[in-house]
Amino acid sequence: MASFPFELVSPERLVVSEEADEVTVPGIEGEFTVLAGHAPFITVLRPGIVTARSGSNARRYYVRGGFAEVNPTGLTILADLALPVEELNDARFATEIAAAEHAISLAHDDESRAKAQQQLAWIKDLQALVVPHHVHASH
C-alpha cells in the first residue's frame, strides 16, 4: 500500500509527523478515510478519534475539532486540541465537557448554541466509547 505524509498539529505542538498508509478522520459530516492519492479537499472536524495506520501499526489520537486538509502531497490536520488516546481519562473529559458547556453559555444565538450543544453531545458520546465505566445496577 502506498504511503503519504500525515501531520497532526495542535496549537501547543506538532503531535505527529509521519508516513501513513491510511488515516481515518472524524469530519463534521461523518468519518472519512484518506489513502495515498485522495482527492484534495478541506473539511471541518468534530470531536473524535483520528486513526493513523502504517502496515500493521495503528495509532489513535483524540481531536476536539479543527480542520483537515487533503492535498496532493498528503494530509494535514490542524486540531483545536490533539492528544494520544492513551491520555484520555475521566479528568480529561471533565475538562472537555466543561469547555463545551462554557461555549453553550456564551452562545449569542440559536445557531451557535445548537453547534455548541452538538459539540457537547459528541464529546459525551466519545467519552462513553473511550473511557471504561463501571455499571452500577439499581434495585
From TrEMBL:
Subcellular localization, as worded in the UniProt entry: Cell membrane; Endomembrane system
InterPro entries on file: ATP_synth_F1_dsu/esu, ATP_synth_F1_dsu/esu_N, ATPsynth_dsu/esu_N
Lineage: superkingdom: Bacteria
Segments forming domain ATP synthase F1 complex delta/epsilon subunit N-terminal: 5-81
Pfam family, one: ATP-synt_DE_N
Membrane topology qualifier: Peripheral membrane protein
Keywords: ATP synthesis, Cell membrane, CF(1), Hydrogen ion transport, Ion transport, Membrane, Transport
Subunit structure: F-type ATPases have 2 components, CF(1) - the catalytic core - and CF(0) - the membrane proton channel. CF(1) has five subunits: alpha(3), beta(3), gamma(1), delta(1), epsilon(1). CF(0) has three main subunits: a, b and c.
UniProt function note: Produces ATP from ADP in the presence of a proton gradient across the membrane.
Family statement: Belongs to the ATPase epsilon chain family.
HAMAP family: ATP_synth_epsil_bac
Protein name: ATP synthase epsilon chain
Naturally occurring in which organism (per UniProt): Flaviflagellibacter deserti
